[in-house]
Specification:
Elements lengths: L3 H12 L2 H8 L3 H15 L4 E4 L2 E4 L1 H29 L2 E8 H7 L1 H10 L3 E8 L1 H10 L4 E4 L8 E16 L18 E4 L5 H11 L10 E4 L3 H9 L4 E5 L4 H6 L2 E3 L7 E10 L5 H8 L4
Parallel strand pairs: 3-4, 3-5, 7-8, 7-9
Antiparallel strand pairs: 1-2, 5-11, 6-9, 6-10, 6-11
Helix pairs in contact: 1-2, 1-3, 2-3
Length: about 290
């Protein structure tokens, strides 16, 4: 059981406000201040500082937050495992970004579910930003995602690599002859929503040629991969997506890869969990089903 002062620290980190943290825990603001002072004395470092009117974590505070979040999530997981021991049932919470969950691992996920008939599965399809927040909160044990992971707070293991390609309907009539990315700017582009790993990867690549998704003449933004594929099948525009997501349509010949001289993008998909969790080996054992 984590010390109550640690709970106070994590609540302050959550809201970056002593008063809101106190309200959340139903204690007084002076009590929160006392708890933080105790931790600063115990660890012999400052945990917060003020920049103008904003409360900020010090570098030491960031390290402590990362470690204590993992400990807090492990505590919740341990409590759940002990409860499972009584009922002889198992609970697994998995997260997948939409490209991964809807296309790349669905058959393996179904096989895992059939392999564990007495297990309760909680499965979440979200974008990269949402997945990482849910890992931090303990809602998700581990996830497979395609987006960038800038924080050092996570255990990361490569799952596989996949190509991102430009896709159109096989009979799409382009406004001009297409050889380079700039030749596509007169086309309507179908993209994922902000927070999506696929969109972040695409924007990062386009920026190297000083291109933004806003430079395309029209945009369709949607948070559903299956809808994007259906829109491509109906010739609503062009899109940049993982090749695995349209493998069936490419084999059938309903969609085609638009070959571009200046677009060659391969990106890693990653297994992600909280760093330094005592359950990392358990998560890796479960994740073997997806390899």
């Amino acid at each position: 059981m984590l010390d109550f002062r640690i709970e106070s620290f994590l609540e302050v980190c959550k809201y970056m406000n002593f008063t809101r943290a106190a309200e959340s825990l139903n204690i007084t603001q002076p009590a929160i201040s006392t708890h933080i002072k105790y931790l600063e004395s115990y660890y012999n470092c400052k945990l917060f500082y003020r920049s103008k009117r904003n409360l900020c974590l010090t570098d030491e505070g960031k390290i402590l937050k990362s470690a204590l979040l993992s400990m807090s999530n492990d505590q919740d997981k341990l409590r759940m495992i002990l409860a499972e021991e009584k009922t002889k049932s198992e609970k697994i919470s998995l997260g997948f970004t939409r490209s991964v969950g809807e296309y790349l691992i669905l058959d393996k996920l179904i096989a895992l579910i059939k392999e564990k008939p007495s297990c309760d599965f909680h499965i979440y399809y979200e974008n990269t930003d949402e997945i990482l927040r849910d890992i931090d909160s303990g809602r998700i044990d581990f996830a497979i995602i395609e987006g960038f992971i800038k924080s050092r707070d996570y255990f990361i293991k490569k799952y596989k690599s996949d190509r991102i390609v430009c896709i159109s309907h096989k009979d799409h009539k382009f406004k001009k002859q297409v050889k380079k990315l700039t030749d596509l700017l007169d086309e309507r582009i179908i993209i994922r929503e902000e927070g999506s790993g696929t969109l972040a990867i695409l924007k990062n690549f386009l920026s190297m040629d000083n291109i933004d998704t806003k430079d395309f003449v029209n945009i369709i933004e949607i948070n559903n991969m299956r809808s994007i594929v259906e829109m491509l099948r109906s010739d609503c525009g062009v899109s940049f997506i993982f090749e695995s997501c349209v493998k069936k349509e490419l084999e059938e010949g309903t969609l085609m890869v638009v070959d571009l001289e200046d677009f060659n993008l391969v990106h890693d998909l990653s297994l992600v969990a909280r760093k330094n969790s005592i359950f990392t080996d358990l998560y890796l054992q479960i994740a073997e089903a997806f390899y």
